[in-house]
Amino acid sequence: MDSIIVRGNGPLNGQIPIAGAKNACLALMPATLLSEEPLTLTNAPRLSDIATMKVLLESLGSEVTVMNAGKVLALSSHGATNTHADYDIVRKMRASNLVLGPLLARHHRAEVSLPGGCAIGARPMDIHIDALTLMGAQIELRDGYLHAVAEGGLKGAVVPLRFASVGATENILMAATLAKGTTVIENAAREPEIVDLADCLRRMGAQIEGDGTSRIEIQGVDRLGGATHPVVTDRIELGTYMLAPVFTGGEVECLGGRISLVSAFCEKLDAAGIDVSETSAGLKVRLRGDRPKAVDVVTEPFPGFPTDLQAQMMAMLCLAEGTSVLEEKIFENRFMHAPELLRMGANIEVQGGVATVHGVEKMKGAPVMATDLRASVSLILAGLAAEGETQVNRVYHLDRGYEHLEDKLRAVGANIERVPGR
Ligand code: EPZ
């Protein structure tokens, strides 16, 4: 397994291009299953999770052609009839469960393996199942698979979500485009990736209103056509790289960034003494003074502070002046970066879903272990500021969500290299 070695190397200066959103692309790709016509996605990120979704869709009979070195995906599900999403593929990536809604809508049946838990939590699917059942599906859990049938197709329904689940909102949104009648999703997730999916589905002929709010209304149609759709900018990659100059000093411009994608995050950066300015090309970020200030953070569904930026924020607050309290309210086990940061000299106390971070002046490089996607990148960021060398092991986690990370950071002055696994 590859490792990445980072050495503190002084201020970062320059531009970092931000890619298309992993979590938008992973919902957009299954939309091909809803139509006989071709779907082309541009501005796609080059990530291993995208490759995993490609394998899953091909196992269902879709064609996925990768062009422009991975930035363009041409998908077609013409004649795709397999409705069995196998455990061997699904277990690698939870987002595989996003084929459930489209398969049910188009083929009126689906056998989708439960994804199984992952490092950050059990990640059940009860909200998906309850919603699709309200739309007329019979869903039974057998041998680790969800066996779903919708005799005569799905029917529009009012679907209240007990929690604004991103994946459940995406599954229902896609399923409802071909259901008979009107579907209303109440307490829908409001993430930009939901709006991006709705934009793409509208391009395919779907009738959707209210995406981006907590009430989405979908009028079912008989069939969907093809479309070409640009994947929205990745707000989590954006937030991650916005923090880089805070660890090192200097000024970085994140190309493609807009404040609207990260407004709650920017409020916290401002309170921590970090300047963010919107330019025609993106977002320019620099630290006021020589140390960030402590701030408290609570993770919430969009438009609240994103859970996917919690680990990166914690790493930054390890070096802040004062004490910060971070509360993780989305996932039950998302502080695995804390023990690794402690190895680098951080001062963190974790009690259940609350982490108290006492800022220190300096951290020291150390060998550390990546445990999940966002925890991994928080260790890279800490390594940028630490004295000496930090070796982050098991970086396959990183490759799931950050394209060419070491190239992007090296281009603005970081001392970082990938060491192939022994
Ligand atoms: C999406 O996961 C993202 N993944 C996650 O990003 C992100 O952290 C999460 O939304 C929250 O923003 C993709 O978009 C591919 P949820 P998802 O359904 O859809 C519980 C990353 O790092 N829940 O909103 O799985 C669940 O256990 C990844 O890029 C149920 O209890 O998130 C969790 O505690 C990590 N029952 C909470 O809700 C359900 O049926 C949020 O889950 C569904 C979810």
Notes on the protein architecture:
- With 422 residues, the chain is α/β, with parallel strands linked by helices.
- Helices cover 29% and strands 26% of the residues.
- The protein folds into two domains: 3-18 and 233-419, UDP-n-acetylglucosamine1-carboxyvinyl-transferase, Chain, CATH 3.65.10.10; 22-230, UDP-n-acetylglucosamine1-carboxyvinyl-transferase, Chain (Alpha-beta prism).
- The chain contains 14 helices and 24 strands.
- The protein has a four-stranded mixed sheet. It has a four-stranded mixed sheet with strand order 2-15-17-16. A four-stranded mixed sheet has the order 4-5-3-14.
- A hairpin with a 3-residue loop joins strand 16 and strand 17.
- The longest helix is centred in the middle third of the chain and has 14 residues, at 235-248.
- The mean pLDDT is 96.
- The structure holds ligand EPZ.
Short description:
The chain has 422 residues and is α/β, with parallel strands linked by helices.
Strand line-up in the sheet with most strands: 22-23-1-24
Mean pLDDT: 96
CATH architecture of the largest domain: Alpha-beta prism
| Ligands and ions found | ligand EPZ
Q: Determine the structural class based on helices, strands and strand pairing.
A: alpha/beta
Strand content: 25-35%
Could you give the distance between the termini?
A: 7 Å
Q: Main β-sheet, in a few words?
A: 4 strands, mixed
Per CATH, the class of the largest domain reads Alpha Beta
What is the CA-based Rg, rounded? 21 Å
